[in-house]
């Protein structure tokens, strides 16, 4: 069955979300670009519970779950004051359409700032970001490691543990605060957090690309 790379974003569903630049252009050129990208994500997309991410010079990956709209998100929604936010509040469009618009605003905000800084012109991102729902437990485990190993896969580093623009280090330092939902992720490995972290780390250490998964789930980045 052909993979649908542009699924609707629905509450309580986990997605593999990724996108890349047009052509062979860079998406990030310095540390500040990476940090600004994450800051803009938090600004525009608090509607997603992030489990893992990796930012690389020309593309990115996120594993995240769409949150239902609660009181806190409702406040953020009211503050957006966009056409789409008003349409969603009034019940004229579904949540998925509003979220797609938030992603567009997120990409646009980053591209405008990046283009200005780099004295660059034209589109930065591919037009449609890919999002594939993930339900199967094996795929969830696989994607965690796949995302953290991606810089190694694309020869951006010699060891995935050395890449500083991913969520990997957040799982090494559980005592430090993080916006990631680490407890839920680790609960996939064991109910005991210490054992869960050990199994999480061992799974990453033993990880190998599954060619069947690659063919069924991913396009070339």
List keywords for this structure.
single chain; 221 residues; alpha+beta; Alpha-Beta Plaits; four-stranded antiparallel β-sheet; 9 helices; 4 strands
Q: Could you explain how this protein is built, in words?
A:
- This protein is α+β, with helices and mostly antiparallel strands and 221 residues long.
- It is 47% helix and 13% strand.
- The protein is built from 9 helices and 4 strands, in the order βαββαααβααααα.
- The chain has a 4-stranded antiparallel sheet with strand order 2-3-1-4.
- A hairpin with a 2-residue loop joins strand 2 and strand 3 (59-66).
- The longest helix is centred in the middle third of the chain and has 24 residues, at 95-118.
- The radius of gyration is 18 Å and the shape is globular.
Q: What is the tally of beta strands?
A: 4
Number of helices: 9
- Beta-strand proportion: 5-15%
Mean pLDDT: 94
Radius of gyration, rounded? 18 Å
CATH-defined topology: Alpha-Beta Plaits
Largest sheet: 4 strands, antiparallel
Low-confidence stretches: none
Strand order of the largest sheet: 2-3-1-4
- In one word, what is the shape? globular
Succession of helices and strands: EHEEHHHEHHHHH
